Amino acid sequence: MDLHLSKKVAVITAASKGLGKAVALQLSKEGATCIICSRNSNSIKATAGEITQQTGNDVIALPCDVTNTDDIAKLKDAILKNYNTVDILFTNAGGPPAGFITDFSLEDYKKAIELNLISAINLIYAFLPVMQKQNYGRIIASTSITVKQPLDNLVLSNVSRTGVVAFIKSIANQYGKYNITANTVAPGYILTDRLKSLIELKAQQENTTYEKALAGFSSEIPLQRIGTPEEFAALVAFLASQQAGYINGQTILIDGGMYPGLF
What we know:
Elements: E1 9-12, H1 18-29, E2 33-38, H2 41-55, E3 59-63, H3 69-83, E4 88-91, H4 106-134, E5 137-142, H5 155-175, E6 180-187, H6 193-205, H7 210-219, H8 229-239, E7 251-254
Parallel strand pairs: 1-2, 1-4, 2-3, 4-5, 5-6, 6-7
């Protein structure tokens, strides 16, 4: 399927590895010009080189800490100066630490909200005006299955990510008339470095092996396996496409059927 992303300008944050990197690679394969960022300038430049080598398309690496408003302003200025447009925005940030309610202070909650919610709001505010002006845009926010089903050991994620869903729904409602769609993607267990660290933590807590802990995670999923970053990226690429133009304001789970509810 041709997703009609050739020559579209896409901004992908936290893209030096994991889900962000997978999304950037997939969008580049579809012909989009990708601007990728992360806090580490060396890592993001290396990732840009890898993706360009694989796809033959331009990938521009810019350093940006998404929790820093000055960095986001510099990112916006650099992109609009060189491209004068942004068609696709994928907001993404690392997950906050795992743990239970008694493990965290009020300050930990504030940091998690800054990382996951405020960063998404600031990024969308930065590029929404140009999307409105050109009467076109695709906004996709990465969250977690925790926005549908809070997990006991991910309390910071439970709290900080649900606000993203509410904000994305508000954008969808108010800016749909400008041909801008805004959706949330909520992954379950996807085999990234973050999940690997959670599996390792479970193995330590249960005094077992990594392989047995991984099997325990997989057993919670009807498909009996962990998802891949490539599967996640394929969903994001579709939401960024012309074909997904009537999908708006939705929270789409990609979890192998792990979420047990109906709504």
